[in-house]
User: Fold this.
Amino acid sequence: MNAAVNIDLITEARAFAAQHHRNHRCRHTGEPHTVHLEAVARLVQAVPSATPEMVAAAWLHDVVDEQEINPRDIREAFGDQVAGLVGELTDPANLEDGDRGRHAEINRLHTAMASREARVIKLADLADHARDILEHGRGDADIYDSPLWELAWSRVGLYFSNQGRELARA
Assistant:
């Protein structure tokens, strides 16, 4: 793939995400959700082994979960590789799967089986969410009692399993 195509892929993913998240705000900061998406994309782009498809998927990682975009639309617009990564980043749990603990377990297992590239993006996503909680908190709420903190640490444990150690060296 040539450089112009790589830039176009990322630019198109950013525009698609901005369009579909235009009314979406981050719950911890009140900022437009695109601020989070840009932070995740920048973190991914800083990884030496990152590909343009990974950066594009970082921009798009929430569109299926939070904007109810059909995965087929992602495939048509961005190709199989980006759609595959977005699919790996989309939480499979739904309301029929039980309580929040059961949802978290289903999503943890899904993440554990994701590709190395998808785990890099997920780790960037969790890092930015953790930063938001640490910087903006929720009044007197203790971050360490936050469900996000518990989820982040449980998923980070998966990343740094034997397979995940390769991720840390990426």
Q: What stands out?
A: The domain at 3-169 is CATH 1.10.3210.10 (Hypothetical protein af1432). The CA atoms of residues 20 and 67 lie 7 Å apart. Residues 157-170 have pLDDT under 50 and may be disordered. The two ends are 21 Å apart (CA to CA).
